[in-house]
Structure formats: C-alpha cells, structure tokens
C-alpha cells in the first residue's frame, strides 16, 4: 500500500519565518516516519483574492488543490497576525471551496494538525483556535494536539528545534496527524519515530 500523504501549508512570506521552520520540522518528522510530504509554503500560496465568481484557476491554485486532493493528512502553520491566522493562509483555505464538489468534499476524512507562532501566548492561542475552526469547517479532523510556537524559537536547517518542549509538542502533533490518517485508511501505518518522553 502506498505511503501516507501529507500536505503541509505554511502561511508566511517572511524570510526566516519561524512558522515555516516549524512546518519544515513537522514535515521532516513525517518523512522519517515514511510519509510523502508536499510542502506548499510562502510564495507557493500567493493566490489572487478568492472570488467565487471566477471560473479560471491559476497554476498556484491548481498545485494547492492537487496537493490537498492527494493528501491523507494536512498540516497548517501560520504566524499570528493580530490574533488570527495570516491573510495568505486564510485566502488559500478560501480557495478550497473548489473542493466542494469532490467526493469526499473539502478536507473530509483528512486529519489536520495546526500550529501558530506568536510573541504573545494569548494571541497565539486565538490564531490556533481559528486554524482549528477553519479545518473543522472544511470537514477535516483536527487532531487533539495543537501547538503555539514561541516566536523566538530557533530551528536548524535540518528541521531540529532548539527548545525540547516545543520539539516534543511538534512531534506529538505530527504523529497524531499520521496516526489518524493511518486509522482512516484502515490501519496502514507509517511508523512514528520513537522519541524520549520529556516532562512538560
């Protein structure tokens, strides 16, 4: 049976984005577990403002929709802008209205893991809640773990996280997306990477 497929969407255009680094860390863990991961991040998500009356689709939108249609699970990562997700990511999620006529429609049947990045924990929690609400509104299965990553968190180029508590939470988030996706497919499992238990 084919590997679990994950679509990882990141909603920041900033160079050195912490949310993009956190998303890459999750993608790296999913790949180590045997999943196929398609990252659609930054400029890949630059789409025209969603207009329900527009018939044509640009190449970037077609790539996004293709990644989501193929996915068993989805990762959503966003910086926190004024207590919510970035407009870049929200606009991309609005474009998923094109999946309404699919069977299954929207993100139905896909596990969805959400993370936000914030300087302020309250604002980050609000953005995380918005991501989870959007995922559920699109009929996705938002996994129990959600992560607010502190904005000053450092990541290595290979996807390592300097803060063990944040790293542990991102690992749990990723594993839950993989495990729920495997359950949905009837038990075909990508093996999660074994990690030490840390007190949190």
UniProtKB/TrEMBL annotation:
Signal sequence coordinates: 1-20
The answer to whether keyword Aminoacyl-tRNA synthetase applies is: no
Which GO cellular component terms are attached? Answer: cytosol
Pfam families, per database record:
FMN_red (PF03358)
Q: Which GO terms describe its molecular function?
A: FMN binding; oxidoreductase activity
Q: Where is the NADPH-dependent FMN reductase-like domain?
A: 5-149
- List the InterPro entries: Flavoprotein-like_sf, FMN_Rdtase-like_dom, NAD(P)H-dep_reductase
Q: Which UniProt keywords apply?
A: Signal
Keyword presence, Electron transport = no
> Its domain of life?
Bacteria
Which PANTHER family does this entry report, sorted A to Z? CHROMATE REDUCTASE, NAD(P)H-DEPENDENT FMN REDUCTASE LOT6
What is the protein's name according to its record?
A: FMN reductase
């Amino acid at each position: 049976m084919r590997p679990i497929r994950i679509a990882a969407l990141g909603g920041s255009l900033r160079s050195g984005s912490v949310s993009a680094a956190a998303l890459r860390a999750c993608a790296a863990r999913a790949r180590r577990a045997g999943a196929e991961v398609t990252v659609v991040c930054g400029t890949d998500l630059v789409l025209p403002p969603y207009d329900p009356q527009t018939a044509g689709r640009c190449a970037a939108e077609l790539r996004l929709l293709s990644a989501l249609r193929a996915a068993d699970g989805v990762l959503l990562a966003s910086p926190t802008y004024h207590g919510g997700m970035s407009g870049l990511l929200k606009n991309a999620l609005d474009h998923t209205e094109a999946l309404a006529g699919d069977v299954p429609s929207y993100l139905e049947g896909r596990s969805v893991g959400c993370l936000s990045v914030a300087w302020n924990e309250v604002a980050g929690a609000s953005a995380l809640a918005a991501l989870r609400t959007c995922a559920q509104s699109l009929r996705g299965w938002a996994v129990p773990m959600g992560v607010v990553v502190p904005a000053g968190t450092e990541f290595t180029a290979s996807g390592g996280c300097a803060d063990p508590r944040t790293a542990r939470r991102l690992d749990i988030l990723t594993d839950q997306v993989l495990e729920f996706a495997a359950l949905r497919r009837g038990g075909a499992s990508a093996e999660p990477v074994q990690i030490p238990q840390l007190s949190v």
